[in-house]
Specification:
Blueprint lengths: L6 E9 L3 E10 L2 E10 L2 H18 E7 L4 E8 L5 E6 L3 E6 L7 E5 L4 E2 L7 E9 L2 E10 L8 H19 L1
Parallel strand pairs: 5-9
Antiparallel strand pairs: 1-2, 2-3, 4-7, 5-6, 6-11, 8-10, 10-11
Amino acid sequence: VRFYEGCDGLKTGFTEEAGFCLVATAKRAGVRLIAVVMNAPTAAARSAEITKLFSYGFARLRAHVLYKAGEVVGKLPVVLGERPEVPVVTAQELSVVVERDAATLPQKKLVLPEKVKSPVAKGAVLGRAVALLDGREYAHVDLVAGCAVPRSGFFQTFFKILGGAFRVLFKRI
């Protein structure tokens, strides 16, 4: 089993009552499998059964990636920030393991506020990206600020307000 492609963990054992036992893990293309064999007659049979279980699982399942790690999924307005917006980024990959021939795939949903208040630290959690399966939450990852947005200073804020007032005034004229 240790030579099985993707096998990265295992625990073997033997007792008279339980026979040859093995718990093993393997990962391929974003799919992690855990296989357990108990009461095998020999160590070789134990390894052969784990190999069959892994081969069966990897043949039937695949990872469906909804968002990649670090993917920019949008921007949020920042109240009183030096920048008007902050990029919203996935903190890690969001994927769901599905059958290879699945008729329906997971849906994705972003849960975010309408705006954030400054200051915003880079990496601050702003919301969640959610994987939905049959309308129910299946998995989620944090959505974080892609950069820092410091609070704007008094004069910067004053000139933003003044500039906004002039824009409104001149639009009416």
